[in-house]
Amino acid sequence: MPLWLREHRWRQSLTAVFLSLPVPGARATPGSIFCTERYLKVSVPPFLFEAILYAPIDDTNSTAKIENGNIFFTLYKKEPAMWDSLTLENVDKEKLQYLRENAVLTAHEKAKEEREAKKVTKEEHKKYALEATMKLEEAERKRIEDLKEEERQKVTEELELWKNQQKDADNYKSIQKEQELHQEIGQLKERKNETMNKTRIPNEGISKTKYKPTKGHGSYSMFSQNLKEEQLPAPRSAATIKVSFTPRVFPTALRESRVPEEEEWLHKQAEARRTVSADLSELEDLREEERNPDWLKDKGNKMFAMGNYLAAVNAYNLAVRLNNRLPLLYLNRAACHLKLRNLHKAIEDSSKALELLTPPVRDNEKARVKAYVRRGTAFCQLELYTEGLQDYEAALKIDPKNKDIEKDAEKIRHLIQGTMQGS
C-alpha cells in the first residue's frame, strides 16, 4: 500500500503557484512526476501524492526541481487570479476518476502529437541534409568542369599556335628550297657557258669546218648531258597522312588490354544501368551519374567521415535499392546504425554482409572481420554477451594476431563471468 503524502506547503502569486512536497528517504526522478492542466501526481515508492488543481495551469512551462529530499514545483497559471485553495475540495470518487482518466488521455494525445511533430521534423532534416549534400556535390562538379574547360581552351590555343608556327616554318623552308634551286640552275648555266666558250676558242684556230656541230655521237652526248643536268625534279609538295584507329571503349591500345576483364567490367556496368533505369520515384530528380551505387557509396563514406550519419544511411539505403549484392553497403550502413544506436538494424546489416561475403577467401578476410566485430558490438550493447562473444571469437579465428579484438573478447568473458556470479 502506498503512503499518501499529506504534508505539503504552497504559496501563490497572481500568475504562479509554488508547491513544496517532502519525500523523505525516497529517491525521486523526473519519471516519478506526472502533470497536466488540472491533475498532478507524484509517485515515489512508497509515497504517493495526487491532487486535482483548483484551476488550469500551463503544464508546458511549469517546472519541478528535486533537491535534498524535496520536490519544488513552480506551476504557472493559465489565467492570472488568486486561488482559494490548491486543490478542488469535496471531489467525489467518480469525478476524481473521470479527471484522472481525462488527464491520462490528454497526456497520451499530447505525447502522440509530439512524436508526430518529431517525425515530421526528422524527415524534413533528412530531406534538407540530402538537398544540401546534392548542392555541395553539384557545386564541386561545376567547379571541376570549369577547370577542365579552362584547361581545354588553354591547350586548344597552344595547339593552334603550334600549328601556325609549323605552317610558317614549312613556308619558309619552301621559299628557301626555291631559292637554292634557282641558285643551282644559275650555276649550271654558268658552267655550261664556260664549257661552250672553252670548246669554241681552240676550234677557231684550226679549221672553220670543225666549227660546225656534226651529227656525231660525241657532239650529241655532250649537249644532251648538259640538258639532263638542267632538267632537275621539282620539290615534293607537303601532304597530310590520315591514320584511322579501331574504335574502343577503353583508352588503352588493344595490345595492352585484357579482354576478359574488360568484358566483365562492361557487363557489370550494363547491369548497373539496367538497375538504375528501374521505376524509383526518388531517382526522378537525380542525374545519370548520381544513380550509380558506387557513387552513392562514396558519398555515404564522406558523410560518415563528416559525422552526418543520417545522411550516410540515406545514401547507403538508395545504393542498396539500386544494387543489393554489394556487401560493403551493408557493412558501412551497420557502422552508421551503431553510431545512431539502431542496434537491431546494425545486427541485420552485419548478418547480410556476412551472407554476401561467401565463399570465405583471403580477399574478403578484412570485411568479414569487420562484420563479426560490428555485430558482436551490437549484441554486447544489447547485453547479449554470449552472442557477442561468439562473433568476437569468429573474428579472432580469421585474424588471430589482432590484439584489440582479443582484448575486447577478454572483457566480454569477464562480463559474462560477473553476470553469472551475480545471478
UniProtKB/TrEMBL annotation:
Domain CS: 3-87
Signal peptide residue numbers: 1-28
Keyword set, alphabetical order: Cell projection, Coiled coil, Cytoplasm, Neurogenesis, Nucleus, Repeat, Signal, TPR repeat
GO cellular component labels: dynein axonemal particle; extracellular region; neuron projection; nucleus
Gene3D superfamilies (alphabetical): 2.60.40.790, Tetratricopeptide repeat domain (1.25.40.10)
Any one GO molecular-function label of the UniProt entry: nuclear estrogen receptor binding
Record-linked SMART domains: TPR
Compartments in which it is found: Cell projection, Neuron projection; Dynein axonemal particle; Nucleus
Protein name: Dynein axonemal assembly factor 4
